Amino acid sequence: MTTTCIDTQDRAPACSPSGAPRVVPAQGLVQIVARVWAAARHGMALFGVATLAAVVLLATQPPLRAELERGATDWLLGRQAATVEDDELAAPERVLAANLKDLPPEQVRVAHWLARKYRVASEPIGALVAEAYQLGPQLRLDPALILAVMAIESRFNPFAASPVGAHGLMQVDTRVHADKFEGFGGTLAAFDPLSNLRVGAEILQDAVRRAGSVPGGLRLYVGAVTHDGRDYIVKVLSEYERLKRVSGGQQVGFQATMPLPASIGPATPVLPGEPASAPQIEADAAPRATDTPVAARAS
Description:
Elements: H1 25-60, H2 62-87, H3 105-118, H4 122-139, H5 143-154, E1 166-167, E2 172-173, H6 193-211, H7 214-222, H8 230-247, H9 278-285
Antiparallel strand pairs: 1-2
Helix pairs in contact: 3-4, 4-5, 4-6, 5-8, 6-7, 7-8, 8-9
């Protein structure tokens, strides 16, 4: 018995002669596309109406428009600032020079004295002096001591390097103290003056704390192993005493003899029976161009 399939819409056979359903490819697809387009058109119409309503609202409400403009401006400025901070250090972290007129009188006196003695520009020295005076109270170190170490270590040359791996103003051994530069972007920051100063001052503070005294801390800082570090200690303490007097307003010569603790002893060997004189100690303590910078090896 043969069954005939009839399409109830147009009375046309909906099945093939064999009884399989007839496929109508084009008509169904066209209907689907038409429905999607109608929905999209209605959506775009709604979006257009909403946009028009928003424009009318903003045009009739100036305070609301001003508030939205401020919000958009703040967002854009915030995005720009975030991008700058990701690419480089913030502006305060990159200040490498200071206007001496903005510094307290004692810092100005120290900056001028160091600039004349070591023949460097006073503005960069002013920035280092200001940083040392800021770090000193935080680390419980005299700022003049930090500056004295810097003077003897590198003569304020931020690119100084020693054969044993010490770098920068405070001659920090970047192999021993690589972890301390992680917060500054890595060991290459040893050549950034302020980064090197901060790391070196931290090492110095730790050395003084461990030793229990400034001379002992200097001995640890210089890494004296095969010698007692006496020459280095005398040089630093002599400069330290000069800087303290300069900051107080005294007129001090670049190589003025300074009283030093008796426990330090002479800076160079003295013949039996021959007392060590202060001028002799001071001559040995004076920084020379041929001096090789030493490394901060305190661990």
